[in-house]
Structures are given as structure tokens and as C-alpha cells.
Amino acid sequence: MNESKVVIVTGASGGLGEAIACWMGKTGVRVVLAARNEDRLRQVARRIEQLGGTGLVVPADVADAGACAKVVQAALNRFERIDALVNNAGIVAPLVKIAQADIDQWQAAVHVNLMGPFCLTRFALASLTETRGRVVNVSSGAANIPLPAASAYCASKAGLTHFTRVLAEEEPDITAVSVRPGVVDTPMQDQIRRDGPAAMNPDQVAYYKDLKASNQLEPPKVPGRSIAWLALHAPPGMSGRFVNYDVPDIAGPARSIFGADLD
Question: Which domain holds residue 62?
């Protein structure tokens, strides 16, 4: 079990972040839950407690460096250590072609998807070094694949993936991994189906709508389980890698440790 472990999870108020946090709670982890929606965070914390873990609610917008510092300090004040950081918070907006992009909206995406993980890592690094801990950055296949009308998302996720590689080179005492979570059935996919038609190519829109209609979207608990395993057990030899959530050497051990269901 992992009763002594302390893990920060951002974007923990629902979807993938909630699933990651709850899998950890199932094995007794003390989870620091960060997101903007305090009411939803409290619901997730209660679920974690029911599963056997501990949830500490810290409302925060990761686009704000001061809020990132607050999350790290709250973890240290309560638990006096940090064993892992899961940078999961992310946004797909703005969905717009580059020629029509609003500069402030584009910059906001970079602040959430890239600057937030940088700030949290920077503030948590001293403690993570002491615990020989882990940083897991939730990236995307869009880090490598150009998606028309999603330039901010693609660029920021590419930056996050390469940031992870640099972090691994600079900090040999921690394990830093970026992960592709697959195409997950979350509000982000809802937003793509809703807002995408105004900017995306028709074939692109049809692809995302078909994923939902044909039940090809992963439930959050499936990649969430793999990401929880990475945060607790990723071996040092994996540091710097960009991994898929469903490869056997990750998905297999994750299922063995956490089980099939969140109950």
C-alpha cells in the first residue's frame, strides 16, 4: 500500500484527474487535489476518503504562478513531503485557425498547459528531489500530430513533452515522464464536438463525432489507472520518455496493483 505517499494532482475536479486521484486513494495515497471548482474538489475528496485515501482540497488556477506556489505549500504544510506531481490540468481552447486566433486566448492555453506544469514542478522540485519522486505530465498525441484549428493545444502539449525530457536530463534524482492518455470521454471531447465545426475541416469534425457515436472513447478510469501507476511506480529508467497509457509494461502492472474497477 501507499499510505505514506503524497501526490499532487491538478485538474482533479472531474474526468481524468478525478480518476487518477481516486485510483491512488484506493491504495491509501494522500492526494492533494487542485482545480478551480472547490465544490467539485470536495466531492472528489469525499470519494477518495471512502476508497481509503486522504484528499486535501486546494482550489487553484494553474495558470496563476502564485496559485501553483499555494498548492505546493499546502501539500508541504499538511504532509511535509511530496512524492509525485501529476500535471493533468489542460484546456483545448481556442479552437480556431491561426489567422483568426485571439492572442489572449492562445496565451491562456499556454499558461494552463505549459506554464502551470513548469511552475508546479519548479516549486515542488526541492521536495521531489528529497523523496526521489516523480513528475508525470499528461500530454497528448497532439504533441506530435498537427491538428488544424488546435494550434495552441498542439504547441503547448509539444512544449510540455519536451519540457519533460529536459527535466529528466537536469534532475537525475527524480523520474519525469510524459504520457499520452488516448482519446478520453471527458468534457474536452464534448467541447471539440460542440465548437470544432466552426473551425475544423469537415473530415476532422466527423472523426471526433464518430469516436463518440461508436463508443471508441476511453472512460477516464482506464488511462487514469495507468497514470496513477506512473506517478507511484514509474522506474527511473523510464525518465524522459513519452509513453502511451495502454502499453503492456504500464497498463499491465497498473491493473495488477489497482484492480479493474474503482470500488
Answer: 6-258
Helix H or strand E encompassing 256: helix 248-258
Residue 207 falls in the annotated catalytic set: no
- Cβ neighbours of 30 (radius 10 Å): 22
Among the listed residues 5, 157, 178, 226, the single catalytic one is 157
Q: Which of 127, 139, 140, 178 is catalytic?
A: 139
**Model pLDDT for residues 210-221, shown as the tens digit of each residue:** 999 999 999 999
From the candidates 5, 26, 153, 221, which is the catalytic residue?
A: 153
Decide if pLDDT at 263 tops 80: no
Rounded to whole angstroms, what are the CA distances from 218 to 126, 170, 234, 241, 245? 35, 34, 22, 22, 11
* HSE-CB of 144 using CA atoms within 13 angstroms: 10
pLDDT the model gives residue 3 = 62
Q: Which of 228, 140, 243, 242 is nearest to 192 (CA)?
A: 140
What letter represents residue 262's amino acid?
L
Residue 89 covered by a domain: yes
Q: Is 127 a catalytic residue?
A: no
Q: What is the pTM of this model?
A: 0.97
Give the Cα separation of 86 and 78 in Å (integer).
18
Give the Cα-Cα-Cα angle 178, 14, 251 (nearest 5 degrees): 40
CATH of the domain at 202: 3.40.50.720
Nearest to 117, CA basis, from 166, 79, 76, 50: 166
The total of structural domains in the chain comes to: 1
